[in-house]
Each structure stands twice: as C-alpha cells, then as structure tokens.
Records
---
Amino acid sequence: MRRLITFLAALFILAPAFSAAAAQEGIPLLGSVEFNNAEIEGEFSPEINEYTVTLNDSSLTPTLKSYSIEGEAELFFTYKLDEAKHQSGILITLSFDSGSIEYSFDYANPGYDSKSENNYLKEISCSYCELSPEISRSDEEYRLYIPSDLTELNIRAVTEDINASCDLPKSITLASGQEPEFTLTVTAGNGQTRAYSLKITRLDKTLAEVKEEMSREGFTSLITGERFYRKPLFITVFAACISGIVFFAILLKVLKRLSVKAQDPDETDFFEA
C-alpha cells in the first residue's frame, strides 16, 4: 500500500513535466541564442519563451550573434517597439509547417535620447537573400537579391541607434516575377529622417536552389555565377559608360556649334559701302 501511494505521488509530481514534453513533441524549439551588445539575464532554456536582456551599450541596437534550432523551422528576427516607436526588446519567431513559436527578450536598460541625430541603418537582411553592396554610411541605394520564385519577403532593417526607428513592414507580399523598389525611412530620436532605396532583384535560382547553395561548405555569395549584366559591378560600369558617352556627345555638339563661322572671310560685308 505504501509503495502504491509513493508511486501515485511521484506520478502526480511528474505529470506536468510529461505533459509539457508531450506538448512540445514534434514542435521545433530555439536550442540556443546569443546577441551582440546584449546579455540574457539567467540561463536560456528552449522551453521558456520570455526573457530580459541587459544591453552592454544602452544606446546601441543589439543584433543576432548566433543561434541553433531543435527541429526544422525558419527563424525571423525582429524588434519590439513601444508606443513611442522606441525599441523595447527583441522578438524571435520560429515558423514551421504546423504553426509558429515566439521568444521575447525585453531590454532591461534601454537608453532613450530624444536629442539623438543618428538615423543610419546598421543592417538590412532577409532569409535566403543577399544585399549588395554591403551596408555602409556612405551608401543609401542598395539591391536585395532574392530567389526567382519568392513571393513573401520578411526583411529586417536594423538601425545603429536604439532611439531610431524604420518604417519597414514586417512582411511584404510580391507577385510572381515582381521586382519593386522600396524607400526605407529611418527616423532619429530627434525626428530627423534619412531615406534608403532598396531595389528588389530576382536571382536565376529558385528558393530550393538557394537553400541548397547556402548549405554548401565554403559558401560566400548568391550573386556568384549570376547573369553578368545584373551584377552590381557591371551595372555601375555600364551606367558610367553611358554617362560618359552622353557627356562627350553633348561636348562634341557644343564644340561643333562654336566652330561654325558666322561669315565667310572672302564674302563682302552686306553693309560695306
């Protein structure tokens, strides 16, 4: 009798754990995660979905450093915003065939500064896509290369400053073959704005081919092997050549006009007495 009571008590205590394990069976989980400029308070566990993170520099935006997934899922990394559109935390979503699961990381010490003038982007990224050129403070025009059959974009725009915000929608739906151009506006803490141009360009590769290529050892770029006339370097050189041809054509026309003599030197002046 005593053994039966002990067994039932143990079963009662362990039942929630067994239920949780059964509920999670077959559902992908975030196995591990690390951030640049942010430390998770406490120990991370795949079964816990809400955390607090401490920023090393309270004015700088944290970014994803590394992660692992238990199971098959796509990871989407975005930022939580408060009512004033200030960053208040990080949101990681795992999307899979049967649904999705979210992990929330709230900032413990955000440094909001309404006088901040920093309205630069630090990063533009998208799953199975490639940005060109690499983002920098000197460029405000970019191309985002995407698979030929991709119809839903989940672009992540990261501002340098935690005070800044970007008006990029969470998800963008494209028609088949569509290559639109977007304007991304970054607003600093003091309200000053900076506009970035993002041109969508489709690769000569499907999503399946891109996934397979990116999984290869030694992978470096999706643009390698792309049609030469769509590469950034070719586009830049081609534009420069066209501009040069137009410039010399105009210059030649001007010089020709200046070289035309208004009067033949051997011709008698009409008004000469």
Note: The chain has a mean pLDDT of 83.
---
Amino acid sequence: MANQQTAGREALGDFAPQFAQLNDDVLFGKVWSRTNQLSLRDRSLVTVTALLAQGLTDSSFHYHLESAKKNGITQTEIAEILTHAAFYVGWPKAWAAFRMAKEVWKENDSKNSAKEAHEASMIFPIGQPNEAYSQYFIGQSYLAVLSTEQAGVYNVTFEPQCRNNWHIHHAKAGGGQVLICISGQGFYQEWGKKAQELSPGDVVHIPAGVKHWHGAAPSCWFSHLAIEIPGEETANEWLEAVDEAEYARAACSKQSHNKKDSDGLAAEKGIK
C-alpha cells in the first residue's frame, strides 16, 4: 500500500477538512497510487511541468521537485525538461524554476560519487531505479535482473536509509527467498524479532509466510542478491511501511553493538 499522505490535514484539517481529505485521500491516496497506469516518475514529470506552466514556483513546486528527484528524475533530465518547457511556458518562469531545481539537486554530485563507489565495490551491476516497486520502498532503490531461469536472481541496491515495507512471501508449497549480501551495510528484521545487521557475505533464509523487511543502514549504501525460491502458488503481499521509530531502533542496535566491540578492544589493549 502507498504511504498515507497527511499534509492536507496538518495544514488545513480544521479550516478546510473537505479540501484536506480530497488532497490526502484522493489526489495522493488514489491518483498518485495508480502506478499501473502511469509510473511515479512520469507523474512527477507531468506535475512539475504543469506547475511550471502556471509560474507556481512556490513551496508546492519545491515539494514536487523533491518528489521528482526521489522518483528517479536525474539532474541532467530535470535540466532538459525545464529547458524544453521554457520555449512553451516562458523564459522567466524557467529561470525561477531553475533556481529552485538547482537547490534540490545540489547534493546530486556527492550522491552520484557515493553511488559510483558502491557500484565499483561489487561485481554485479547496480541496475536501474526500481520504479515498479517504488511505492513499497522508503527512499531510492535500484534493481538489476541477473537471471530468471530456474530461479529469479536479482541484485537489489538500497541508498542510505532506504528500506522496503514489511512484506510476506506466500506459497502453498516451497517458496520464500534467500538474501546474499554483497556490498555495504544493511538490516533484516522479522516481525516480533530484533533487527539483524547485514554485512557482505551474510546469507539470510526467509521461509514463506514470514513477515519481514530489509534495507540499508543510515549512512551506507547496501546491496544484496535476492533469490526467489520456486514454489506452488507463490505471491508477495506488501504491507505497511517500516516507520521511523522501528528503523531507528535497528540503527541504535547497530551503534550499541559497535560500541561494545570498541570497548572490548580497548579493554583488551589495556590488559596487554
């Protein structure tokens, strides 16, 4: 399910509850969720262009530029989109839009450098932005299809803080998934259990019917191979997003574990 939008209710809930409900539940809850008709990336492109045509380079335009970036539109692409649109909507409007777009994409160079370094650390391709499943992820993920023969094998990459929603791999018989961590640092957590830190070389066996999530650590890119185990009547059920509190607990658990290791090493050196 798509993440619930609350901006309308937070800003206008008391003053204009009907408008807030239409904004949150219809526009963002239904229209933006129809990704089988039009991808989130394409919806962002249409929205940015429509707002630009009206000269609305305000906070809503900034929000939709950030969404466009999150939905996979690159710095090169937004520059070309605004340049092309300038001939139709007017040069002054494009200038205003460029000033705001430059702010939104200002961290693009450093992010691309981190992405390139991560990709160079592994032998498998990082793939393309994972648009087909973007509604089930917080943050940007990438997908490379490695094989679909005998069993599906995919390289899934998460940018820092990115994680997928809680989900379950269902199967009448067989099924499930195996994760093989190949680069970076991440987490895996089963419902009702503590999060497990993942490092290159770790292998996670996920039986069918187990509710779980996985994703990157707060400051690290993370990639794993996802191997789909063949089974009868297999299906994935996507559930609620991993909220910030749950994710923060996973990150705190990692920091606590690292501190214990550091304290233990210091004590050992003191003894010696």
Note: Residues 163 and 244 are 11 Å apart (CA to CA).
